[in-house]
Amino acid sequence: MQLATGVELHIRRHGPDQPTSGPAWVLVHGLASNARLWDGVARRLASFGASVIAVDQRGHGRSAKPDEGYDMASVANDLAALVTAVGWQQPILVGQSWGGNVVVETARQHPWAAGAVGCVDGGFIRLRDRFPTWDECASVLAPPNLIGVPEREIRSRIDAMCADWPVEGREGTMANFELRPDGTIAPWLDRVRHMAVLRGLWEHDPLAALADVMVPVRFLVADSGEASWSNSRRAGVAAAVSATPAGDAVWFPGAHHDVHAQRPEEVTSVLVDLAARIVAPDANNFGS
Asked: Which side of the chain, N or C, has fewer Cβ within a 10 Å radius?
């Protein structure tokens, strides 16, 4: 789909093209991911009659890969332009990891574009708390070089790492890669663009953005169970919930960072509950 921002984004539609009842949904993936990680959640939301779009953000998946525009403001503009292009009124924006920060920034810059916000293990990511300088961040979080790895080896790694995931989740993860004629893979998001996205995330302050988001915000947080990591994460999530006028958090014990792909039924249930609170708002449900 060609957008007013000048970029062409690939989308996956589920359910009717236009909402007939209840809110529509726009699902946004994380860094180096793709729209198919949302297949399990999107299919379940559509089974309730909802209109759902999952999008490959610029540089990712089947979308265009321009050289510029990977800062947070630009990718938020893309998302708002997508909402305009499909003609939807205040859909629920749901993003995972980096995508969680993207939907928060979209709701901040373009409040007309969001009826509510869901952040799946993201939306609270402040990399500068961990990495005071960009050079430190770039050194630690630069992606591995996977170009040329045999497809069968990647599939084997995914099957081992994601043994408890449904097939949709494992296939969605495999869709992060281009399958090349010689039987090897290459990430759809190349290293240069990956680092540009990472720089945009490092520069982003979600707490400042959340303070300006007036719609309900729900954080769906994976808790691996590792003590020091969980404690740090709980502090970050608590700060994010406190920063927004209408926020809450739901935790998923023992879950992977890609909890939407690992446990789509549970994630869908939490998102449907968020939608119900918009339809029948209860001031006691948020910000407590």
From this structure: C
